[in-house]
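Quiz preparation item.
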């Protein structure tokens, strides 16, 4: 290991941004075996967020320990999913991704899209293989739902991904008290305007745990897809 690598390795040992590790999943990276690193902290406060402990809590695992975890599972895992919280908010994320890629493992990032420059740089440097981008709301409703003013940043991330040569997906969580069919139609229109060609994934909010905004369940208020005019495929992930 050269001095530069030693410095990077030491710096990855200092901070502890990972809240927890899911050691194995078949569900979170399309067609791959993966683990999930849950990053503590987020720059949004979505009312329906079901990870308040992760968003408001502190990490307990260093990036170095995360790499050690991967080392021990070399050959068993195809991929790593970085989720949270917002993994792109962490200062050392590029160095961490580089170290993961050095191990020959695929990387998927779950992101709210609020760090377009960092995301773009990671894509340009081939540090990311798949992105799952949250489309929280229309511009008008973005602050109400996320308690942030980051719609423009999201929009820039969306454009970058559309022009990048890596697979990605766009997904929206629907709570019927927050998003109505007119909003979904507007969001579909935005995706079409930017010429998004992939599938638009929708998922209903389920109130099975504590959320940041203590949201009630929104069941029985389903969106009638037939009312949406769309040229892009729309798939519901959790209808039942
Ligand atoms: S749902 Fe919102 S608050 Fe929760 S981790 Fe995602 S972006 Fe952050």
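Solution:
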């Amino acid at each position: 290991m050269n001095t530069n690598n030693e410095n990077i390795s030491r710096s990855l040992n200092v901070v502890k941004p990972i809240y927890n590790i899911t050691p194995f999943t078949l569900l979170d990276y399309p067609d791959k075996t993966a683990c999930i690193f849950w990053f503590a902290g987020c720059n949004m406060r979505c009312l329906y967020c079901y990870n308040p402990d992760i968003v408001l809590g502190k990490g307990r695992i260093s990036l170095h320990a995360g790499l050690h975890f991967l080392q021990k599972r070399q050959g068993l895992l195809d991929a790593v999913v970085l989720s949270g919280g917002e993994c792109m908010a962490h200062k050392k994320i590029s160095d961490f991704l580089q170290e993961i890629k050095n191990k020959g493992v695929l990387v998927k990032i779950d992101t709210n899209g609020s760090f377009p420059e960092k995301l773009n740089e990671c894509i340009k440097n081939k540090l990311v293989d798949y992105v799952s981008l949250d489309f929280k709301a229309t511009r008008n409703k973005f602050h109400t739902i996320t308690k942030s003013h980051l719609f423009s940043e999201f929009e820039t991330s969306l454009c970058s991904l559309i022009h990048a040569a890596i697979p990605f997906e766009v997904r929206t969580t629907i709570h019927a008290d927050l998003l109505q069919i007119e909003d979904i139609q507007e969001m579909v229109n935005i995706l079409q305007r930017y010429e998004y060609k992939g599938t638009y994934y929708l998922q209903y909010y389920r109130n099975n745990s504590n959320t940041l905004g203590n949201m009630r369940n929104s069941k029985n208020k389903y969106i009638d897809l037939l009312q949406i005019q769309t040229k892009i495929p729309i798939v519901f992930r959790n209808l039942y």
